[in-house]
């Protein structure tokens, strides 16, 4: 679990190290606030994503299912700065095994709540859906802005990073891939 006392001490030390007075009124509660925030935004470290997934049988449905524009927030593991954007998740059920629509968003949420790389996050979402539902195909596209590129370093606000992960038919069959990408892109 998350050691909030250790985080509070570290934040206090960081404030001192940057030349701030951690005992001034505006900063007195900052170490505690940061510790509580870290407990929330890194909760994916202590959650088994498979525990949030539920599948259903719907024998009549073997068509593409897409949930688009799922808001996503994570922390870049290289700088511990946020990256945020949206995830588009699509899958093609096999033999009527479908996922609850909210579970697709929950998968994104749990996997994003840890120090992460966008590339890895995109693949983890796809691989989790494969493991949970054994679909014929999975496509995941994540579009995000990284504050490590916006407020430091190259300083390019508005630049978006787009990653994709394709599994099954969406990887091997060109027509299926084209169809799902057209649907994800809104065309």
Automatic annotation (TrEMBL):
<dbReference type="Pfam" id="PF01227">
    <property type="entry name" value="GTP_cyclohydroI"/>
</dbReference>
<keyword id="KW-0547">Nucleotide-binding</keyword>
<dbReference type="GO" id="GO:0005525">
    <property type="term" value="F:GTP binding"/>
</dbReference>
<feature type="domain" description="GTP cyclohydrolase I">
    <location>
        <begin position="7"/>
        <end position="184"/>
    </location>
</feature>
<dbReference type="InterPro" id="IPR001474">
    <property type="entry name" value="GTP_CycHdrlase_I"/>
</dbReference>
<keyword id="KW-0862">Zinc</keyword>
<dbReference type="InterPro" id="IPR043134">
    <property type="entry name" value="GTP-CH-I_N"/>
</dbReference>
<dbReference type="GO" id="GO:0006729">
    <property type="term" value="P:tetrahydrobiopterin biosynthetic process"/>
</dbReference>
<dbReference type="InterPro" id="IPR043133">
    <property type="entry name" value="GTP-CH-I_C/QueF"/>
</dbReference>
<keyword id="KW-0378">Hydrolase</keyword>
<dbReference type="GO" id="GO:0006730">
    <property type="term" value="P:one-carbon metabolic process"/>
</dbReference>
<dbReference type="GO" id="GO:0046654">
    <property type="term" value="P:tetrahydrofolate biosynthetic process"/>
</dbReference>
<comment type="pathway">
    <text>Cofactor biosynthesis; 7,8-dihydroneopterin triphosphate biosynthesis; 7,8-dihydroneopterin triphosphate from GTP: step 1/1.</text>
</comment>
<dbReference type="InterPro" id="IPR018234">
    <property type="entry name" value="GTP_CycHdrlase_I_CS"/>
</dbReference>
<keyword id="KW-0342">GTP-binding</keyword>
<feature type="binding site">
    <location>
        <position position="79"/>
    </location>
    <ligand>
        <name>Zn(2+)</name>
    </ligand>
</feature>
<dbReference type="GO" id="GO:0005737">
    <property type="term" value="C:cytoplasm"/>
</dbReference>
<dbReference type="GO" id="GO:0008270">
    <property type="term" value="F:zinc ion binding"/>
</dbReference>
<keyword id="KW-0554">One-carbon metabolism</keyword>
<dbReference type="GO" id="GO:0003934">
    <property type="term" value="F:GTP cyclohydrolase I activity"/>
</dbReference>
<dbReference type="InterPro" id="IPR020602">
    <property type="entry name" value="GTP_CycHdrlase_I_dom"/>
</dbReference>
<protein>
    <recommendedName>
        <fullName>GTP cyclohydrolase 1</fullName>
        <ecNumber>3.5.4.16</ecNumber>
    </recommendedName>
</protein>
<comment type="subunit">
    <text>Homopolymer.</text>
</comment>
<comment type="similarity">
    <text>Belongs to the GTP cyclohydrolase I family.</text>
</comment>
<feature type="binding site">
    <location>
        <position position="76"/>
    </location>
    <ligand>
        <name>Zn(2+)</name>
    </ligand>
</feature>
<keyword id="KW-0479">Metal-binding</keyword>
<feature type="binding site">
    <location>
        <position position="148"/>
    </location>
    <ligand>
        <name>Zn(2+)</name>
    </ligand>
</feature>
């Amino acid at each position: 679990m998350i050691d909030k006392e250790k985080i509070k001490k570290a934040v206090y030390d960081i404030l001192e190290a940057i030349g701030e007075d951690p005992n001034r009124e505006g900063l007195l509660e900052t170490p505690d606030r940061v510790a509580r925030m870290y407990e929330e935004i890194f909760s994916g470290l202590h959650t088994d994503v498979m525990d949030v997934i539920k599948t259903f049988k719907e024998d009549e449905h073997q068509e593409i299912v897409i949930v688009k524009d799922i808001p996503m927030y994570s922390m870049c593991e290289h700088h511990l700065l946020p990256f945020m954007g949206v995830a588009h998740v699509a899958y093609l059920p096999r033999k009527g095994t479908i996922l609850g629509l909210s579970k697709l968003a929950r998968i994104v949420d749990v996997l994003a709540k840890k120090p992460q790389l966008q590339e890895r996050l995109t693949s983890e979402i796809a691989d989790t859906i494969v493991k949970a539902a054994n679909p014929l195909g999975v496509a995941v596209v994540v579009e995000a802005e990284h504050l490590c590129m916006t407020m430091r370093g190259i300083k390019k606000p508005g630049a978006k990073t787009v990653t994709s992960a394709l599994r099954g038919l969406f990887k091997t069959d060109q027509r299926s891939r084209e169809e799902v990408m057209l649907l994800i892109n809104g065309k």
